[in-house]
Amino acid sequence: MSAGQKKRMHTVPRSYLEAFAVVDPTRRSPGIWRFDRNGAFKVVGLDQAEVVKHFYTVFRDGSPDTGIEDILCGIEGDFCPARDAIVERQPLEKVHRTALARFIAAQLLRTPRFFQSMCAFLDFQGVRYEHNDLRGAMLQLIDYWIPRLARMNAVYAYNDTSVPFLTSDNPAVAWKKSPDGLVWGVLDQYDPHLIISCPLTPTLAFVAYQTPTSLQAANTEDHETPRHERVAKTFTTHVDCGTLPEAEVQRLNGLCIANAHTCVYSCYNDTALEQHINTAFGRHS
């Protein structure tokens, strides 16, 4: 990438990972613990940890569509002050809640796993598509998920335990509880048991729960009428704040590891964490 050119098309940006940096005054620049599925684990700089996937770049007439890139950069930039406001327990403005919903929707829909899933589904259905068009469609899907998240019952869950939250290269997890345990990778907006969670810092996570009201809204969405012709609708968001017991922190960490594409990130490392990650990744410690 040429000097002075913006780094764009992140799926997991440095600005998100900086909250999980290790506390080490001997380091000249912030670092983070990275645990890879191949068994490697070490502290890396944040610039090595951020996930950049240029195959998401959308081309128009043979050139990258910078307008779309700017939209995605804006999602990243607006997230930081929203996260900081929640961490500091300040009164949240609508712009903060919207920024958080946009960022988490993007984290659900801009991951390599989701892109592969879309391709596999269309291939199975025998649908012909252009990869470039599919990348553009992801932006529209992000747009659809923002009001869905806003209508779900949200919780800003503070972690006061001695076990910090982990994160990964797929930080936002769509999951549900079932009689057989937990099911992750559920991205069905019509599932009445849908839960979406995303660690925001080692001591804070966002969790959203499907409700009858949010489910009804999903079932009555209008995607046929152009956005500029739709009648504006208002709705009330429901957001709680609370703290989590250690068992729930461990459960969210387990979901985070299970949903990881290739690596897990942490602000610390110890034997118990290594064993937990090795077990979740199906390795012997």
Q: Can you give keywords for this protein?
A:
single chain, 6-stranded mixed sheet, 4-stranded antiparallel sheet, 9 helices, 40% helix
Molecular structure report:
The chain has helices spanning 14-17, 46-49, 66-87, 94-109, 112-125, 131-151, 212-219, 246-259, 271-280, and strands spanning 10-12, 31-36, 41-45, 51-52, 59-60, 63-64, 153-158, 167-168, 173-178, 181-184, 195-201, 204-209, 238-243, 263-266. With 285 residues, it is α+β, with helices and mostly antiparallel strands. The chain has a six-stranded mixed beta sheet, sandwiched between helices. Strands 3-2-14-8 form a four-stranded antiparallel beta sheet. A two-stranded antiparallel sheet has the order 1-4. Strand 2 (31-36) and strand 3 form a beta hairpin. Residues 1-7 have low confidence and may be disordered.
Quick take:
The chain has helices at 14-17, 46-49, 66-87, 94-109, 112-125, 131-151, 212-219, 246-259, 271-280; strands spanning 10-12, 31-36, 41-45, 51-52, 59-60, 63-64, 153-158, 167-168, 173-178, 181-184, 195-201, 204-209, 238-243, 263-266. The protein is an alpha+beta fold and 285 residues long. It has a 6-stranded mixed sheet with strand order 10-9-11-12-7-13, with helices on both faces. The chain has a 4-stranded antiparallel sheet with strand order 3-2-14-8.
